[in-house]
């Protein structure tokens, strides 16, 4: 008996010492639905089950959305043994029942808690109960845990989240670990081995300014993302009513360019045709879900007009032209130059992955200090409209093959290697010239995929 006990102690010590995050999860950015943005605390068994049904019937499951995540307010207290207690009025059959239903639809089930003593809605948090809660979640059949930072007082973020990671690992059920620490302690610098995704900012609100400000804050973070470890600029607001259809299209496109997790946050049971056409645009989703797992970098920043490029597998790329201004823009776009743009590395002219970001705004040619970056020029007769770098020679960033930000064995590409597809018009471009004027509506984008011939 004594020997058996000793054996168990050694096994537990060993598990603790080797605890890690579950590998092989979230190799592409997680996709699903979360209750918070639309329903806040108004969650219930019926809502979750009906949303699971809607995820299937609307075609969202087929498009790749798989996690149904209940955010805050499902929990009310702890019992005399410290076990978390769910709201019996809203979840009369308990959480395992809901999880089983979600699984029966071929979907995965997610839940929410916080690393502090309370959640953001002052429900019981996980602090001091990490291993107990992890075992409970495993028993429920949880596949995804969003772990917030409310009620955390003086805790150290990295240690707290690592503790929960170890608890999940020890409980033994593979669970995607979503760190929701709002970017305060720069989780991108430490969370790659701790979680599968980490929030980079405070909460999104359902308006253009909130969305575009969050987007801007992702500029320097591309190097930290990759398969199994994603920057999370927060959940989607598409379909919640605070932005125009054009703005929602922009929101969705930008999130896909960023290789962001795609957690829909709207009412799936009552979606307009416009909302569906955005959330179900499979060509845009394919950009997000590309197996290379690169986050887009800013190739050109002319203030209101920006060009972002996301490297895709098979030497393909997605190019997004963003008009942030309140006026329509007509921009001369040099598709031949974009075809040549080097996308092998994690940025354009920035320092290599893992190095400390310098003052020259890595990933931003045109920012100070980016060697070889093309300078903004004006097209003759184009009314001062920025041009996609006419006459710029070679690759932005100017790195040689194998250099920082580059890729060994890099094959230069030209426009002849590609056909170019407009991912919102769902049409291939027919170019008479390689440089053409493109109209971009206010608060809008054009997204192209350079597809290998
Ligand atoms: C925080 C998170 C949100 C949401 C709420 C719930 O604000 O950042 O995403 O989970 O808590 O209370």
Describe the structure.
This protein is an alpha/beta fold and 453 residues long. The protein contains twelve helices and 18 strands. The chain has helices at 2-17, 36-39, 45-57, 60-63, 94-104, 130-140, 157-171, 208-216, 245-257, 273-279, 282-288, 335-340; strands spanning 31-34, 67-69, 75-78, 84-86, 108-114, 144-148, 176-179, 197-199, 230-232, 262-264, 297-302, 305-312, 316-323, 329-334, 418-422, 427-428, 435-440, 444-452. An eight-stranded parallel β-sheet has the order 9-8-7-6-5-2-1-10. A six-stranded antiparallel β-sheet has the order 11-12-13-18-15-16, with helices on one face. Helix 3 packs parallel to helix 5, helix 9 (245-257) runs parallel beside helix 10 and helix 9 packs parallel to helix 11 (282-288). The longest helix is centred in the first third of the chain and has 16 residues, at 2-17. 49% of the residues are buried. Alpha-D-galactopyranose binds next to loops.
User: Quick one: how many beta strands?
Assistant: 18
Radius of gyration: 23 Å
For the biggest sheet, the summary is:
8 strands, parallel
Low-confidence residue ranges: 344-407
Helical residues, percent = 25-40%
Task: Give, in order, the helices and strands.
Answer: HEHHHEEEHEHEHEEHEHEHHEEEEHEEEE
Q: Helices and strands: which structural class?
A: alpha/beta
Chemical compounds bound to the protein: alpha-D-galactopyranose
> β content, as a range?
15-25%
Average pLDDT figure: 87
The separation of the N and C termini measures 68 Å
Shape: globular
Given the structure, what is the number of helices?
A: 12
Please give the order of strands in the largest beta sheet: 9-8-7-6-5-2-1-10
């Amino acid at each position: 008996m004594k020997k058996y006990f000793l054996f168990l102690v050694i096994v537990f010590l060993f598990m603790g010492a080797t605890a890690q995050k579950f590998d092989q999860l979230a190799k592409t950015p997680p996709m699903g639905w979360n209750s918070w943005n639309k329903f806040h605390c108004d969650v219930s068994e019926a809502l979750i089950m009906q949303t699971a049904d809607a995820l299937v019937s609307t075609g969202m499951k087929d498009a790749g959305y798989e996690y149904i995540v209940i955010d805050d307010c499902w929990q009310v207290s702890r019992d005399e043994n410290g076990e978390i207690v769910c709201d019996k009025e809203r979840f009369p059959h308990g959480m395992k029942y809901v999880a089983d239903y979600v699984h029966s639809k071929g979907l995965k089930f997610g839940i929410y808690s916080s690393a502090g003593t309370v959640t953001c809605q002052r429900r019981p948090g996980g602090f001091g109960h990490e291993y107990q809660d992890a075992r409970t979640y495993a028993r429920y059949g949880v596949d995804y845990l969003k772990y917030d930072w409310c009620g955390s007082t003086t805790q150290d973020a990295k240690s707290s989240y690592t503790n929960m990671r170890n608890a999940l690992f020890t409980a033994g059920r593979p669970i995607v670990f979503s760190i929701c620490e709002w970017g305060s302690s720069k989780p991108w610098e430490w969370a790659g081995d701790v979680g599968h995704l980490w929030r980079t900012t405070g909460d999104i609100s359902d308006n253009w300014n909130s969305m575009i400000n969050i987007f801007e804050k992702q500029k320097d973070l591309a190097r930290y993302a990759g398969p199994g470890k994603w920057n999370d600029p927060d959940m989607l607001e598409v379909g919640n009513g605070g932005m125009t259809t054009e703005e929602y299209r922009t929101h969705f496109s930008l999130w896909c360019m960023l290789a962001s997790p795609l957690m829909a946050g709207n009412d799936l049971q009552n979606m307009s045709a416009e909302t569906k056409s955005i959330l179900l645009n499979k060509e845009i989703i394919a950009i997000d879900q590309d197996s290379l797992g690169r986050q887009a970098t800013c190739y050109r920043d002319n203030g209101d007009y920006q060009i972002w490029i996301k490297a895709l597998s098979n030497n393909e790329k997605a190019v997004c032209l963003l008009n942030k201004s309140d006026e329509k823009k007509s921009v001369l776009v040099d598709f031949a130059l974009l075809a040549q743009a080097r996308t092998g590395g994690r940025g354009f002219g920035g320092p290599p992955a893992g190095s400390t970001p310098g003052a020259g705004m890595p990933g931003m040619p045109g920012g100070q200090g980016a060697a070889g970056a093309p300078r903004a020029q004006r097209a003759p007769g184009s009314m001062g409209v920025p041009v996609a770098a006419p006459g710029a020679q070679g690759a932005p960033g100017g790195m040689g093959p194998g250099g920082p930000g580059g890729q060994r064995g890099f094959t230069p590409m030209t426009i002849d290697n590609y056909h170019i597809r407009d991912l919102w018009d769902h049409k291939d471009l027919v170019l008479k010239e390689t440089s053409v004027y493109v109209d971009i509506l206010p608060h809008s984008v054009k997204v192209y995929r350079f597809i290998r011939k």
